[in-house]
Amino acid sequence: MSKVNLIESPFPLSQIKGLGPKRLAVLNELNIYTVEDLILYLPTRYEDNTVIDLNEAEDQATVTVVGEVYSTPTVAFFGRNKSKLTVHLMVNNIAVKCTFFNQPYLKKKIELHGTVTVKGKWDRRKQEINGNRMFFNQQVTESAQFEPVYRIKEGIKQKPLRDMIRQVLDQATIHEWLSAELREKYKLETLENTIKALHFATDKSSLLKARRTYAFTELFMFELRMQWLNRLEKTSDEAIEVDYDINLVKHFIDSLPFELTDAQKHSVNEIFRDLKAPIRMHRLLQGDVGSGKTVVAAICMYALKTAGFQSALMVPTEILAEQHAESLVDIFGDRMNVALLTGSVKGKKRQLLLDQLNNNEVDCLIGTHALIQDDVKFNNVGLVITDEQHRFGVNQRQLLREKGAMTNVLFMTATPIPRTLAISVFGEMDVSSIKQLPKGRKAIITSWSKHEAYESVLNQMTAELKKGRQAYVICPLIESSEHLEDVQNVVELYESLQAYYGTDKVGLLHGKMHSDEKDEVMQKFSNHEIDVLVSTTVVEVGVNVPNATFMMIYDADRFGLSTLHQLRGRVGRSEHQSYCVLIASPKTETGIERMNIMTQTTDGFELSERDLEMRGPGDFFGVKQSGLPDFLVANVVEDYKMLEVARDEAAELIQTGVFFEPQYQTLRSFIEKNLLYMSFD
Ligand code: ADP
Ligand code: MG
Fold first, then answer.
1. Which of 18, 160, 390, 528 could pair with 622 in a Cys bridge, judged by C-beta atoms 3.0 to 4.6 Å apart?
2. Which ranges carry the Helicase C-terminal domain (predicted)?
3. Which of 97, 103, 109 is nearest to 76 (CA)?
4. Domains along the chain?
5. Is residue 416 in contact with ligand 1, taking CB distance under 6 Å?
6. Any idea what DSSP says for residue 100?
């Protein structure tokens, strides 16, 4: 099928006036191959050169002001080819010293007592403007007042690029993407006007209007695709109905050493509804650290067994796989045949296991990504669960989806996805949330101490150990590196704590250790043969030692909020009061703020929202790999409300089936073929 164009041009890119082969090559480097690409090559930002009154300008702001020249400009040369031009201006009755670096040619153009317009950074205290541009007519001309700025490369400048865009925009046909109803309903512009305004806006309000329409369009297209995908996944012919035995499942739940929380029950019900329905489940189970997702997974896997199916549980690390296997064997007793497959299961042992799996002698297989290798063949798999989903890249997620193409999938994550991102990143999935911790849990008390207070933190830790509890000491790095000399070396810390508490009381865990060694240490800590575990972030994910009630995080400001939260989640797993002490002497505002946020809240959902606010969606933990497209204009955080609306509208179109009527044929093919700039890997 040929590429569907919603933008048509009467001529190809190569026939644009003023575009020789050299420039064409540069455009190609910018990923511009067609007229459509060029038209959708939107400015990355706009320069606002609107003149303001200096009396109202904030300190350190970039300002554009008009002033009268009252000193002859002087130029001082220094270094190689460097210069500084100084000129004094009277701006809104303020005497301002203006400097321009490396623009000596300005001197000739500046007339004493003439008027100039200057753009630069205002330093109120020094009454100085560090200029970067100078305009010489009375005012900035209208076209220069609001300038689009494109990402460019050597070989092409802003203006010619802009001229080319103007040329093609004048001649191309831009088909409308949104229905008239939608445009009417949300007061949106036509796409043609929108794109033109994005390139040639002369004022802020028309730009904002265009931005709004374009953002909506992007989000709407994205959501259409997500909803469509969701529908395809669910209505596949190969869907299986899991006819579980509810009585057996109830028995099993009754056999657990605790009662399920309401949130756990609710999630189980949602999952069971999916299992029983003739659809392929495609669900995300998100629950804060310690909320008890594992047991929910266990109940589901058991339900599968009662219906005659096998299930798989995939986890990101071997330590976690082993822990899960152990605790599941505990929980299931002889109800289920649990097997463990990791990278360290090799040779004959592995072959035996694979045979058993193939003969349906294994009910539940737990493992790392070793699970999705080619030779792993289930007899009858009805459910695949991934734990700590955020640790898997999108590839594994996809691979899993392909591998288990005919089965139900449950993704579990302990990184609560901010509400804002959940519907975009996981927009094609259903979501269950466990927003409640098991009964009797006391909120972890988090405090923040500077490095000087290390001794007293140590005393606090000793007091906990004396009560029979255990402690984690977390350290950012394994070996000291040149750049991070001040980072406490985990080995050093380990040795000093050994000296303090006794050699056999303290264990060490880090990523560079052999997996046997890691297991041994973890086992010892789990059995309370050691009191203190000094570790890097390898314990971040999933580890469950309820007797550990104290955590000290060294140089905590080097971790992001999500990581800190994950780490902290290793304590607070029993009815005992738990503590988390952050040791940090942050030097940046963000560092300080992060420490403060950590001491203020233990709610992972709130933390993830704050983390998102502080870091932006691009940097948010795991988001990069989760398939969220790079929108040209829309921002999933700022435009969240719009995203919700777009989602509802898209869902309506898909669910009512209107989207599959002839009038949407073009849009459908378009979304299928080339979702404008939206890369889904
Ligand atoms: P996570 O959601 O972080 O994976 P886990 O499944 O590891 O949490 O559960 C944390 C701890 O809470 C485990 O020790 C588990 O046995 C316990 N737990 C789970 N559900 C409950 C419950 N309803 N009541 C009491 N303890 C529970
Ligand atoms: Mg877990």
1. 390
2. 457-613
3. 103
4. 50-139 (2.40.50.140), 246-434 (3.40.50.300), 445-601 (3.40.50.300)
5. no
6. E
Q: Please choose, from the candidates 424, 430, 436, the residue with its C-alpha nearest in 3D space to the C-alpha of residue 285.
A: 430
Predicted confidence band at 678 (pLDDT cuts at 50, 70, 90)?
very low
Question: Is 612 a residue whose pLDDT tops 60?
Answer: yes
Q: 262 CA to middle of ligand 2, Å?
A: 18
**Mind listing the pLDDT tens digit for each residue in 509-527?**
887 788 788 888 988 999 9
Instruction: Give me ligand 2 centre to Cα 621, in Å.
Output: 17
Q: What is the pLDDT of residues 210-240, one digit of tens each?
A: 999 999 998 898 888 878 877 776 666 666 7
- For 319-423, list the strands marked E by DSSP: 338-341, 364-367, 381-386, 408-413
Which atom, in ligand 1's list, is nearest to the CA of 261? 23
- The label of the residue with tokens 């296997």 reads 325
pLDDT tens, 45-78?
888 888 899 999 999 999 999 999 999 999 999 8
- The three-point CA angle 296-301-303 to 5° equals 95
Res. 663: pLDDT tops 90:
no
The protein residue with its alpha carbon nearest to ligand 1, atom 22, reads: 438
Question: Please, what is the average pLDDT of the chain?
Answer: 84
DSSP per-residue letters across 15-65: GSTT--HHHHHHHHHTT--SHHHHHT---SEEEE-----GGGPPTT-EEEE
Contact 451, 444 (CB under 8 A): no
Which CA distances in Å does 533 have to 174, 539, 545, 552?
A: 63, 10, 11, 10
Residue 442 CA to ligand 1 center (angstroms) comes to 14
101, 77 Cβ separation under 8 angstroms: no
- Read off the pLDDT of each residue in 485-496 and give the average, rounded to a whole number: 72
Best mutation site among 294, 317, 415, 526 for ligand 1 pocket (most ligand atoms within 8 Å of CB): 294
What lies within 8 Å, CB to CB, of 487 at 6+ separation is: 475, 476, 477, 480, 481, 555, 558
CA distances from 10 to 39, 44, 84, 170 (A): 14, 27, 50, 11
Tell me if 39 CB under 6 Å of ligand 1. no
What DSSP assignment string belongs to 396-439?
HHHHHHHHTTTSEEEEEESSPPPHHHHHHHTTTSEEEEE--PPT
β-bridge partners, 130: 99, 121
Q: What is the DSSP letter of 228?
A: H
How far is it, in rounded angstroms, from Cα 589 to Cα 598?
A: 14
